[in-house]
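In the current project phase, the collection of sequences with tokenised folds has grown. One resulting record follows, to show the layout:
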Amino acid sequence: MRSHTGPPARLDEAASGPRPARSPVHASSGTRLGTARPRQEGPTDLRLVPPALAAWGTVALLLDASPAWVIGIVIGCLAAVGLLPLARRHGAASWPRASVAALLLCVAAAAASAGLHGADLRRGPVPGLAREYATVTAEVELTSDPRLTRPKVRGDHVAPTAVLIDADVRRVQEAGGTTVATRAPVLVIVDAAPRGRAVAGRGRSPWLGLLPSTRLRVSARLAPAMIGGDRVAAVLRVRDQGRPDVVGEPSGPQRLAGRLRAGLREATDGLPADPRALLPGLVVGDTSRITPELEEAFKETDLTHTLAVSGANFTILLALLLGPPGLAQHVERRGLAPRLGISLRGTAVLGGVLSLGFVIVCRPDPSVVRAAACGAVALLALATGRRRSMIPALATAVLLLVLYDPWLARSYGFLLSVVATGALLTLAPRWSAGLRRRGIPPRAAEALGAAAAAQALCAPIVAVLSARVSLVAVPCNLLAEFAIAPATVLGFAALATAPVAMPVAEVLAWCAHWPAGWIARIARAGAALPGGGVDWPGSWAGAALLLAVTLVVVLVGRRLLGHPWWCGACGLLLALVVVQPPPLTRVVTGWPPPGWRLVMCDVGQGDAMVLAAGEGTGVVVDAGPDPQLVDHCLRSLGISRIPLVVLTHFHADHVAGLPGVLRGRAVGAIETTGYEEPADQAAFVRRLAAARRIPVTRAAAGEQRRTGELSWQVVWPPANPLPNPLPGTPPGVLPVHPPAPEGPNDASVAMLVRTAGLRLLLLGDLEPPAQRALARSPAAGTLEGVDVLKVAHHGSAYQDPGLIRRAAPRLALISCGEDNSYGHPAPGTVAALRAGGAAVLRTDRDGALAVAGGGGELRVARD
């Protein structure tokens, strides 16, 4: 038992006056978060839950409703409240009158708030101009930080990224019209102009440096909101032609917040890639440095909440100030405030200042406001020592937030935040207590109970969003939990010291990079596990099914906890499902087939192939458009070593998946064509190779290589300079036809592969001009009568019949996406191949394809 003497006791008494003697239980300093307190006993007060849920549902339904509906519901609820005394007098009320009145009043307030916000969105000239797609000159005030869209592969190219900014239109002038003052929320889309900027995406655009509350004058085209029921009145599309026209500087608080955020980015500049990207996101929600593959790893492991500001961030800060929440009002309270001699009232004021600073620095957008509210509610409810007050406090926060910002009612992020907080307040303590009764150490039981409870209730919602269920979410969250608090505290310390002492901030950031790097490694390791997630129906019916499955698992798990041997067997089975050792997987699924020589991966509309080069080793030819798909293919084959990656050309459907090939594998070299177009994708490949210190070489006809039983010869492009597709071709080039308009296609690397007595011809995306030139090249004699032909350009109609007849393949493989918009493969191409005696298989219908056999024998297996 701790002594109750000393400065903390006098401060506590000064704040609250003389106290009666405490019971030993109340004075104990060994109490941890989540343990029982004397004033936590009794049934949970749920009276505020129905009004909060009713307000939430009302707002979600009425945001798009007509004014007549809104007015009718408000009048009806108020009239019902007026009739309650009469109903009570006649014994018709089953609920307490106050509870029914509160429910009806909350519904009326929610309807009024939704109606007002919906009407506000539709008023003014902006919605009408948007329906006409008018070109306007507008003065806008930014309400969020600019952000870049993620690069997306569309066909053979990467769609240009754009800068997205939330803003309010303050003045608008139609072409040749008058200026009208208004206030309409819009989404500003700044189309990237310079080629390559979208891929580099490292803050080159001056638009990315703008701060909230900045006023701009823009000339743009208005368009209707892209999603019905969105919180914006229109979309404002601006062509990025250089530096924006600033007509009003940002406010003082936003300039201060901008300096703090910029200081944190500068302090983290020298860190390794993952901590450098993750730390600003963990501290202030700045995700500008998060790469798509790192973001995907966090999604796969349900660690996305660490990439953005959440209530946990704010809770950690308040815990640092107040100490352990269960002791916040006791003489044993710890934290910085009592150690500095600050009274309880002073601590409350300081906490309020901290809350305001948190919202300003992390930006007062809905997600940050939600995080601050939920974090404050959870911690302050715990600080009172009254567990009964937690649910009412959460219900109050939900009610006030949906009334203040009705659009939160339709936000999946808000739903996840409330559900996770509710799980921590209701299920987690019960599950933790049950685990402790079965011999689990208290701290481990609390952590496991909290992670499992949050995952059980949030997983159905996540499944609706991603159509996937993570099987590694709970262990990954448990392993990452221990690093979140030190990374957050050290990150905020670096944020605060950066403007005044950058060397100190850099040291703090360097210390914080260890826990931040640990979180990133956990995410990457969990995402790399073959069975880390399973596909699930992405609908609310699928969510209900997952909830039912979770309930069954919980009920069965409660019984299994009393049988250690059964628990061990189930844990081992789950580990085998997640890890999926290749030998066991091959026995169970039959994939990959024994003795496989070539696998054409199913990567959608793109190309990715693997040539067997020994146990766990393969040469990869092209990487497809999606890192996840090619990574999944390589994991299913057990490939961990890649002596060479051949990228036939730089179109995105062949190279955009390269991060998935490199993920967790030893890669010896990358070989590419010498025709480096598109330039942005060539730069993307070279940047990835430089980051991993992988040499990049150029392929040329005549090159021959061997690794184990696998050997190959490059038959195209020619070693001489490639034909120039532009007018004025210089002398000395090969006398072949110039490439088609898709110049990179005719520069594809084509290979003749020999393995186990089989001959495979891989043509990349060669078009007829290059195919005819290849048929007349010195290598033409080696192309006759191949066993397997990888059909050029996904089986398009543009094929040279002479080359197909010369190759005369026994098996033709076509890689294309299901229901692709290009009509690949062309029926005429398929018919010509079959007429030549080839069996034709395609990934859009047959899935991944594995070629096995040797010595003339040819077998094909489908995944």
About this structure: The first helix runs from residue 7 to 16. The longest strand covers residues 162-174. The two ends are 65 Å apart (CA to CA).
